[in-house]
Amino acid sequence: MPQASRLRSVLSLTVLVASLGYFVDMFDLLLFPILRQPSLTDLGILGPAQLEAYKNLLNAQMVGMLLGGIFWGVLGDKKGRLSTLFGSIALYSVANIANAFVHSTHTYMLWRFLAGFGLAGELGAAVTLVSEILPRDLRVYGTTLVAAVGIFGTVAAGLVGRYLPWRMGYLMGGGLGLLLLVMRIGIRESAMFNKEKTSGVARGDFLSLFTHAGRLGRYLRCILIGLPTWFVVAILVNLAPEFAPRLGVAGPVNAGTAVAFCYSGITLGSLCSGLLSQALGSRRKVVALFLALSVLGVATYLGVRGLRPALYYALIGWLGLSAGYWAVFVTIAAEQFGTNLRSTVATTVPNFVRGAVPLITLGFMYFKDRLGFVGSAWIVGAACFALAAVSLMGLQETHGRDLDFVE
């Protein structure tokens, strides 16, 4: 096949729908932190109580993603990648529409949990499907496109959060997801999965990841290399308005604007990390480079004082850029395991990282009472980056690996 035709295969309908699915996924996922202040204020939660309410709601969402990651990942290996892709889109769309009608924090928490449960399935299914249908020397282009288009959904969420009432924002997020379901016509299942499901090999055995030392080691390393991304997003960016006065920022800081700058950076970082991975022929080198850039960004964020809001937002954009190895991170997880466990791993790994947010948040809140915002961020951030660096050193290189194998 000519090279031009092979490259056009990256722009197939399957890759396009997977990319738009992740766009809606990230739009809905980040809509909550963007809308947290106006929604909680409208529900009568004011002042310091908002931080506690935010923690509870975010934790409910992330626990939902943790449990949903297991459910959708196993379903993807047992029933097919498309079952997960469209089932997850349907659930989080309905849940986000329901978020528009809440009138108490208890129902808010319930629907954030169910939205998180649904959101858990889309990325893993998309990356697994795209990785298996594209030639191995082109799949990083497909997964990079999925991640870049998807993460740009958070920029759209920032605009919606800025110009629309919070209830209308949730309605739009859910409506986009339901509209995307119409596009599923014509999407084909992975040929690797169709071949493997007739082989008699056990599929989607989540517990098998914990009964073999080699698989468990690979699995844990895949999870831990992603921790710095969510430390940056959940602590430094989502709480940017609370950090700003403690860092001497000379002016007010808006949460939605901070998130938009961060995810604009992540979008650019996703593109750069994927293309750089292809150019260098290595996943590990790219993750190592972006971790180093992220450490530099975090140290600057916590160490510099007296920035104007514009420079503060620019620094948040740098944090997003350096955390933009998310596309390569998820691709590594998909490439580390065989077809019979690939969906389970690719779906649970990013969601276990997201599910670690309650632990990161609890650690931050614990040290905050003793060391303050900045001191706590230093401690928790150092732990996340140290775990990621050690885990990366133990991972095998997977660039160009043939994925047609089973565990």
Automatic annotation (TrEMBL):
The keyword Transmembrane applies. Its main location: membrane. PROSITE patterns: MFS. The chain crosses the membrane at residues 12-36, 56-75, 82-102, 108-130, 142-164, 170-187, 219-241, 253-274, 286-304, 310-333, 373-395. It is a multi-pass membrane protein. One of its GO terms (cellular component) is plasma membrane. Residues 14-399 form the Major facilitator superfamily (MFS) profile domain. It comes from the Bacteria. It is found in: Membrane. GO terms for molecular function: carboxylic acid transmembrane transporter activity. Keywords: Membrane, Transmembrane, Transmembrane helix. It holds the Pfam family MFS_1. This is MFS transporter. It comes from Mesoterricola silvestris. The lineage of its organism: Bacteria, Pseudomonadati, Acidobacteriota, Holophagae, Holophagales.
